[in-house]
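Q: What changes when phosphoric acid mono(formamide)ester is included in the input?
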Amino acid sequence: MIHTSERVSLKHLLTVEALSDQEVMGLIRRGQEFKKGAVWQSAGKQFFATNLFFENSTRTHKSFDVAEKKLGLEVIEFEASTSSVQKGETLYDTVLTMSAIGVDVAVIRHGEENYYDELIQSKTIQCSIINGGDGSGQHPTQCLLDLMTIYEEFGHFEGLKVAIVGDLTHSRVAKSNMQMLKRLGAEIYFSGPEEWYDAQFDVYGEYGQLDDIVEKVDVMMLLRVQHERHDGTESFSKEGYHQQYGLTVERAKRLKKGAIIMHPAPINRDVELADSLVEGIQSRIIQQMSNGVYMRMAILEAVLEGKA
Ligand code: CP
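A: The predicted holo structure follows.
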């Protein structure tokens, strides 16, 4: 068990592997405190945040909006479709501008993996960067809210059996979660179409058929089929996918009594999991969305703490 009473302080949040176990547990603990009503003491300083989303988002974008407002930050609106991005301005110059006008923290989602490298190497850009998802790379804030949700349920990670199922190669959620859950002592099982599995995941867990895994696991984490990252040549049947790789009502009956169902959402209902399971008793999907606000408050606080 990792204990921490220290408040976490971060310059940026770009990947989960850059966090120590103590920092992860510190953020989970702080997320839980915010959920119970804790208030951030910003020493009276005014902070500015902006959310730069170059890929579509509902949960990440809007829960950052809510988290920023709950912390009392000034939120600078940005829409790529009505910004100077439409005149050809690059991501670098957009962030440089935000930094120059006084933005303290920029939450960024972008289609390019590792888009943040050139931003953090800049000597001119002063604002902190929080990665809201980089292509098929990582989704660290989703990983941390998933960890918070698992921790709330079980109170530990060591020895938990976690299935990560679905479109693994294209999922940044899967990559962040497999790295951190393995490091925290969970046992990982992978399942889903073989063409969406990569041998590089072998170091984190064991690949198998869902029917051979379903009765073993404490956490059944389904992933969205990411059609937008496919090349369009694959034939795909929703019903065929659901029956072979999805959590059907029949398969869900074989889950352990205390097992929970998770999905980062958006969900393709009746594809990754049966419609009736989404809001069912074993689902923690709604809790994941709510926890997103509290975990993002903890992350924002951690990057602003050093500037306060
Ligand atoms: N889970 C997640 O990242 O959802 P959005 O794409 O809606 O932000």
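Observations recorded in class: Residues 285-305 form the longest helix (21 residues).
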